Amino acid sequence: MKNLTADELRETYLKFFESKGHAIIPGASVIPENDPTVLFTTAGMHPLVPYLMGAMEHPAGTRLTDVQKCVRTGDIDEVGDAAHLTFFEMLGNWSLNDYFKKEAISWSFEFLTTKLGFSPDQLSVTVFRGEGKEGEPGYIPADEEAVAIWKSLGIPDERIYRLPREDNWWGPAGTTGPCGPDTEMFIDTGRPKCGPDCRPGCHCGKFVEIWNDVFMQYNKNAEGKFEPLGRHNVDTGMGVERTICMMSGAPTVYDTEIFAPIMAKIDELSSPEAVAALSADEALKARRVIADHMRTATFILCDPKGGVKPGNVGANYVLRRLIRRAIRYSRMLGIGEGFTVKMAETVCAKYKHVYPELAANLETCRNDLAQEEKRFNATLDKGEAMYNKVAEQLKAHGQSQISGKTAFKLYDTFGFPIELTLEMAAKDGLTVDKDGFDEANRKHQELSRTTSAGSFKAGLQDNSEVVTRLHTATHLLHAALHKVLGPTANQKGSNITAERLRFDFAWPQKMTDEQKAEVEKLVNGWIEQGIEVTKKMTTVEEAKAEGAMALFGAKYGDQVSLYTIGDVSKEICCGPHVQNTKELGSFKIKKEEASSAGVRRIKAVIGNM
Ligand code: SER
Questions:
Q1: Ligand 1 mean position, distance from CA 213 (Å)
Q2: In whole angstroms, how far apart are CA 222 and each of 23, 490, 510?
Q3: β-strand pairing of 63-71 with 23-24
Q4: Ligand 1 contact, 235 CB (< 6 A)
Q5: Is 425 inside a domain boundary?
Q6: CB within 8 A of 453, min separation 6: which ones?
Q7: What spacing in Å lies between the alpha carbon of 342 and ligand 1's midpoint?
Q8: Which of 28, 364, 596, 607 is the most buried (most CB within 10 A)?
Q9: Residue 43, ligand 1, Cβ within 6 A
Q10: Is residue 383 part of a domain?
Q11: In a domain? residue 204
């Protein structure tokens, strides 16, 4: 096994796939450009979805390779253990309806064994075991083809694990898009099995997944069904941090050269007394949380696309949570104010030669962090003062438990995190009714969900459905703007979250109240009419001849999908869309404001009001 640095790994990987006919393309922004189904780029495939779907041709060809910055915050609370990271780099090689399983698997094997020097004996692989019965709907066969390829490369049957969908199917969870069975590659660390059922995919740490080859043959549609994609793509993802960890023999990703300067900075800033007061596990967890979260926050704040700042909704909220969680843990280590900026500088120094945006945007990143840290510290100080009052009163009355209601009030009204109430109470010899707190929190959340703007059916729908409906609403809005303002009011940008759509369009001045009301009336009228949304595959020329609007700046492929909403709208678009405008319920403009010179921005919501 070789002991490459992350810099060497990136270069070796890209060169290897270049030698196999792949074009090296730049990774995309960590803030998605064209994919409204995710808050952040969570995998290398997201920026490539239109090409994977065949909606257009990639200008660099059908074999691509890249390094993609990814942010996954789904299990943010797991961060602090040995394996979870909220930011990681993913190496990828792509076949856009070009090569398929044989080449993908053989090249993965060749790269692992000849370029990284892993022994074939260290490798275990998993493949999709299929589901359903032949001849019945929903049947998907087992991937025996992948098994045969692995065997031909010398991997014995006992190290080829056939696993169900939970393990060996890749498709963005809860959303629509291209997907398919995958084969995952694990390094056996040589540690003993944790039990008789221990196998790749078990989280005990014996097997570490470093690479995933996805064979995209299906599309998950808006109804959650898998329909054949009509193309055979390959999407692979190799995790830089984990691969480096396995090559170096380091016990965790945090012990690799990647994190070395970041961990060293944390240790330098920590107070030895504060650290000594913690158990070794607590101190270790705090160091890891800070390192992980501040690395992620720095990449988000320095992203070339920009626009994500600490805030209370969507991606902004995720960023705020990362920064505030890091600050909380920094206080445990006795780290003083101003540390977020120092951490960002350390992350920047480590990565700026690979990601120049870190140096270019460091100044704004510094300002954003300093401001957020100041704001949060003020919140904490105020919360601490309130907590002290509560504690004094309890003691004065000879009581020793903080009620759930009081803990919730500290959290809800003063923004004081429950973890801090628990910590401070423990120091003061008080207990907290945590169950009572959870109950109050749950009730509050339910309440706010049912009353929130009357938009969604009390949180019953999953985000992807809402996003699909907003996607169709965007087409209706675009058509209405053309009717009310004229044909120059063209789309300049669009962004959709589970809460709202955002639409930028060319228009030189503020819309009048009458114009906004007229647009709402048109869209709501079309929704009420229950117009069918149809999709057909066609060529760009034909679509344009039919009067379709084309939105993506990039070159279109031979075949594009054209979405038609009665005689209201015709747009070339990757979808997904609802089948009937009735599904949108109703439409309301929340805001109309300037976006940039000559461009206005509308934020709008839909609902079943
Ligand atoms: N999309 C797959 C993954 O994220 C492979 O790149 O694992």
A1: 7
A2: 32, 27, 35
A3: parallel
A4: yes
A5: no
A6: 605, 607
A7: 32
A8: 28
A9: yes
A10: yes
A11: yes
